[in-house]
Amino acid sequence: MTPVLAPSVADPAWWRTAVIYQLYVRSFADGNGDGTGDLAGVRQRLGYLKSLGVDAIWFTPWYPSPLADGGYDVADYRDIDPRFGTLTEAEAFIQEALALGIRTIIDVVPNHISDQHPWFQEALTAGPGSPERERFWFHPGKGANGDEMPTNWVSNFQGDTWTRTTNPDGSPGEWYLHLFTPEQPDLNWNHPDVRREHEDILKFWFDRGVAGVRIDSAALLIKDAELPEVGEKQGPGAHPTEDRDELHEVYRSWRAIADSYPGTRVLVGEVWVPDIVRFTNYLRPDEMHTAFNFDFLARPWGAASFRDSIEGTLAAHAPVGAPSTWVLSNHDVTRPVTRYGREDSAFAFLKKRFGVPTDPDLGHDRARAAALLVAALPGSLYIYQGDELGLPEVEDLPRELIQDPMHYRSGGVDPGRDGCRVPLPWTGEAPPFGFSPGEVEPWLPQPASWRRLTVEAQDADPNSTLNLYRAALRLRRELVELAQAPLVWWDDATGSAEVLAFRRGDGFACVVNTSEDPVTLPPLRSGATVLLSSAPLDGDALPGNSAAWLRLPDTIPNTTLTPGTGRREADARPQ
Predict the structure, then answer these.
(1) Residues 6+ positions from 520 with CB-CB distance below 8 Å
(2) Strand 519-520 versus strand 546-551 pairing type
(3) Distances from the Cα of 473 to the Cαs of 51, 138, 538, 563, in angstroms?
(4) Mean pLDDT, range 249-273, rounded to an integer
């Protein structure tokens, strides 16, 4: 193993304000010329990530996988998929990134594994009643011949959650549970082997210098062994597959492991739990460090909607002392440029359909403004690769090239998630835009129109989305207010209900105009100056669907500020 440089112990709270870049390996950069992104390509582009200004990189699963679900069907946690490189390359990358001040966060998927994992293959071979099957949820079917599924639970990818096995003699066998695809059998977290294995996986990667772990589907691990139907049992924690109280014991054990390593090693949860109190239970001091804030991501464009989400998020996190997380998209979600250009700009998986119109210019403007908004909020910031380039969702992929199981399990109605996973454009005037060397076709085709959105093209344009992100992340690092000061609403910054305005400390303000029309910024007449804006101002007027960061002089009054948690006071100037 490569000599390990541990993450620095000099900044134990790095994760509270970190900028974390989500890297989908298949689509970031292809170093070996086979059309698929890999670690060689990532290592070649480390300078780009350093210049962008990120503090950490979160890798989506890079392990060996049949790719039935984009890598979230893991066959071996202690190796790297040969399409992406080798374990030696991963170890080298972790150290090279640390030398540049960039930490590495890996993805684990504890709810399930690949059906090609040795454990599941052993379970199929061993047969009913075997110890090997106890690591999963094998169960006889209902009905006279066991032909009916054990439950009618619905898959997260739509469709059924049970698949029937076949016995060696060809007769129908037991059923096994999969909350996602049949290629992703759920693990039984009541079994000590399962818990011990995942604790060892954490140690394996912490030993190699990773700074954190992102936990996929973190609220789904524990199931009710009585297999009740959804709704049979009532009350908090009574759902048969979601947010069960026994989960917290698992994450307390994981936190103890993380805390045993030098430097702060963080646990980041993908926690889809609508009840705010139960959501923040995962963020108690002896459990996860942070969890994704999906509420803000799913909100429609608008000042009132954004403010409601921000206030609720900050208020929920305050009692447990955890920082909020802010994210506009990820590898599962329609890109902001496309989403914010739609009449209904909210996001919901079940609403995804082919042919929904979008206004790309409107989406572009709103996505830039939203980038400044989230970068100015207190907490940590996640950026999904390509959002810093203003990439739109690719919605015209040939149907035969779509690989996402969400598309197929919906009967072809849902376009799936591949449109946000198209390989990045780096240089040149035609595909593959420097993603692969030469003229190798990428694993998903890039639109020819992306020639205007390459890193090379945007490097040369001071007004590009890439340079907007670079400037915002530089100011986020430099301005002490953005690291330390709480958020207070500035309700009369413009006098418009369609404007979202807040201050961080005495000297910084963010103003977001969510209307279609320009609004006057009176602070500019009182000595305030523009630090950064998503669109050029016309004198003291902020255009519609745009945002600005302001440097405020001491003369700006503070009598109309409101604490960010929603509690109104006459003067909320932070002390």
Answers:
(1) 494, 540, 541, 542
(2) unpaired
(3) 10, 49, 25, 25
(4) 96
Question: Where does the pLDDT of residue 375 fall: very low under 50, low under 70, confident under 90, or very high at 90 and above?
Answer: very high
Q: List Cβ neighbours of 364 (8 Å cut-off, separation of 6 or more).
A: 337, 341, 390, 465
Q: 3-class DSSP state for residue 566?
A: coil
Residue-wise pLDDT for 490-516, tens only, equals: 998 888 999 999 999 999 999 999 999
Q: Which helix (H) or strand (E) holds 374?
A: helix 360-375
- Amino acid letter for position 205: W
Strand partners, 501: 511
d(CA 499, CA 492): 9
Q: Indicate if the alpha-carbon torsion angle 321, 326, 332, 333 is positive or negative.
A: positive
Distances (CA, A) of 287 to 152, 222, 257: 32, 16, 11
Tokens of residue 40, six digits: 């060689």
- Give the tens place of pLDDT for each residue, 169-212: 899 999 999 999 999 999 999 999 999 999 999 999 999 999 99
E strand spans, 137-261: 138-139, 162-166, 172-177, 212-215
Please tell me the distance from the alpha carbon of residue 145 to that of residue 535, in angstroms, as a whole number. Answer: 66
How far, in Å, CA of 96 to CA of 43, rounded?
8
